[in-house]
Give the backbone structure.
Amino acid sequence: MKKYVFFLVLVVLFVASRLFSSLPVHSSSYLVIIGFLFLGMLITLGGCELFSNGVEGLGGRFNLSHAATGSLLAAIGTALPETLIPIIALLSGKTGQKEGIAVGAILGAPFMLGTLAMFFLGLTVLARGAIKKRKAELAPNIISLKFEAGYIIFAMAVVLAASLTVSRIACVLAAFLLLGSYVLFFSRALKHEAQADEKYDEDFHFGLFLGLPARRRWLAFQTAVGLLFMLEGAKLFVEYIQVLAIRSGASPLMLSFLIVPFATEFPEKFNSISWTLKDKDTLAMANVTGAMVFQASIPVSIGLMFTRWALGRAELTAILMVILMIMIIRITVSLRKGIPFWVLLAGGVLYLVYLAQAVRLGPAF
């Protein structure tokens, strides 16, 4: 019976979100708002788990390397909530708030991955080293990591340049450049070579919950179900983030930058921590860097084309910090074969520095 609990709980949460979606949200108390934010987060994360597990199974069926599966299939799957939130905000958000929420979610996602996700990965590597009495170092596929890190630096530099010009033409051109570059990245990443000890041994969730065979059509079905849950969770989360912004008087950009990505980045953090503890370092790191590549290309392009994209000092600083962190990682793997835990922990330091600046700027943020 235990094997059905996760799926049953997820279905109940999904149904509950649909039944209570017609409540008068603007008159809701803070307790109700926080409850629905939490509900939206749980539905989103549950959908991500189903989606990621499905695409990982498909990766094994198509004989993709861990680097390709992590940086493409798993990364895109877990990055979808962050991508859906700004799209939903722009389509259904309220005038005066939707652009702030969209831009905050777009820039907050790669920032959280480049700082907090790296920090938690470093803590995991440190804990693994202590438990297994081995060097506290991450040992991913160096060739694929250098390639992905180089792309992230390039993409964020393009975003920074377009943001500083404050020109609509520059923003649109940058968007098309990023979209075209991601197509090239995708085709190149598919060719990542597998390492000698790579294998896929994760159980198919719908096989455990529903007794379905792990065939391509059922893997694709689970992936589609996961996407449906992610859409519902993201929509619910965006709706109540706006309500919270109205009730608290806080900046929608600030809330979406610090809260939305922190919640929606859980899949990347969870998957990477799990893979690290299983000694699947390539999957662990590729999931994070691949998601950063996707987020620095697709959602950013949407923001550049469909918002005013007027960034302040805090947002520009966040872009610079992402570039700095990825440069540190790329230089490290160029000098040695692994990434020491303390290099990854530097992400937490950058996050605290940014947070201190955001608090100092106050309303200007």
In short: The beta strands are 137-138, 339-340. The chain has a mean pLDDT of 80. The CA atoms of residues 54 and 219 lie 5 Å apart.
